[in-house]
Amino acid sequence: MVSIKDILDKKGKEKIIMLTCYDYSFAKILDEAGIDMILVGDSLANVVLGMSNTKDISFLEMYNHTKAVGSAVINSLVVADMPYVAYQKNPDKALYYAEKFIKAKAGAVKIEWFEGKKNCVYVAKKLIKNKIPVMGHIGLTPQTVHLLGGYKVQGKDLNSAKKLIEEAKILEDVGVFSIVLECMPYQLAGYITNILKIPTIGIGAGKFCDGQVLVLYDLLNIYKKIRPKFVRTYEDFYSRTKEAILKFIADVKNSNFPDDLESFSISKEELSKLQLDIPYE
């Protein structure tokens, strides 16, 4: 099974692969394919539950999907996204919720950078002190996107770039085992990757990060409401799924499904005992 040490050891040697996943069936496929890390992302709010933002997803929703993914995985490292309500709304409850995710078979949790009196550093320190591995997340942080002026590339000017560099260094010093860099210039992401001893995982942050993550539903073109610039589609499951459903509809309407091989039968001897007027033989 992929461990935290395995992820750390890949730094500068081998690209790290991470994909989001929210259910047992997809998790089994990802695990068998050899994905290093499976992120139970709070993007679940958008692509599965139809919410407008990730901030609104509940702990219970994230917990249940983490449990489902954890049940399927044998080799990959499962990382659970801590929802806003589990650490930003009340940082003092972060350890309680993080422990729940670990019991749901997550190997680590991810927290986004956030400001405040009791902020990201406070939460990260508390979790790590209690032996819960933490993945950081800087740049575009969807849970607090309203404070960033919307879904925009971060770190495009001197001050904001310096701020992201500082955040990355702080998180490394605190003890996170890796950091997601989201939506920032590739030059800046490359610089941060070079100055850190821990791995960086990019999403919209260029190829110089130590690894990459995408939302599985984007990679498969299942979620079509939003398509970020950084997404590459590898299969059009939206069209293929729709095509399969249309074939099913046609087969049912034309009485082509189910056929004899897909149906159960009773012997003629037992059928005669029923003494029923059954026209189908």
Describe what is shown at a glance.
The chain has 281 residues and is an alpha/beta fold. It has helices at residues 4-9, 24-33, 44-47, 59-72, 84-87, 94-103, 120-129, 158-174, 186-195, 216-219, 237-253, 268-274; strands spanning 16-20, 37-40, 77-81, 108-110, 134-139, 178-182, 200-203, 211-214.
Sheet of most strands:
8 strands, parallel, barrel
Helix content: 40-55%
Biggest sheet, spatial arrangement of strands: 1-2-3-4-5-6-7-8
Beta-strand percent range: 5-15%
Overall mean confidence score, pLDDT: 96
Number of strands: 8
In the CATH hierarchy, the architecture of the largest domain is Alpha-Beta Barrel
Q: What's the number of helices?
A: 12
Tally of distinct domains: 2
Q: Classify the secondary structure makeup into a structural class.
A: alpha/beta
Instruction: Outline the low-pLDDT stretches.
Output: none
H-E string: HEHEHHEHHEHEHEHEEHHH
**What name goes with the CATH superfamily of the largest domain?**
Phosphoenolpyruvate-binding domains
Q: For the CA atoms, what is the radius of gyration?
A: 23 Å
- The CATH topology assignment of the largest domain is TIM Barrel
User: Could you tell me how far the N terminus lies from the C terminus, measured between alpha carbons in angstroms?
Assistant: 54 Å
Describe the global form.
elongated
> Regarding CATH, which class of the largest domain?
Alpha Beta
